[in-house]
Automatic annotation (TrEMBL):
GO terms for cellular component: mitochondrial inner membrane peptidase complex. It comes from Odontophorus gujanensis (marbled wood quail). It is a single-pass membrane protein. CDD domains: S26_SPase_I (cd06530). This is IMP2L protease. GO terms for molecular function: serine-type endopeptidase activity. It is found in: Membrane.
């Protein structure tokens, strides 16, 4: 029984160690590099949501290009 508790604590410790590393890395990535967003409605038709369908499109927002001023004609820019 004591050996099972030792194994459980080992896995729990490894989980929390990975958790406390993964969360800051993920938050930094989503803030600085890229994130995923949903586009709903008719405001971006016909490029996104063509045909007026009810489903939303999923896009990848590239923060890296904006920070480096690498925006070109034809790019879609999202403002908050």
């Amino acid at each position: 029984m004591a050996q099972a508790q030792g194994v459980g604590r080992k896995y729990l410790k490894a989980f929390f160690k990975g958790f406390f590393v993964a969360v800051p890395v993920t938050v930094t990535f989503l803030d600085r590099v890229a994130c995923v967003a949903r586009v709903e409605g008719a405001s971006m038709q016909p490029s996104l949501n063509p045909g007026g369908r009810q489903a939303s499109d999923v896009v990848l927002l590239n923060h890296w290009s904006i920070r480096n001023y690498d925006v070109q004609r034809g790019d879609i820019v999202s403002l908050v």
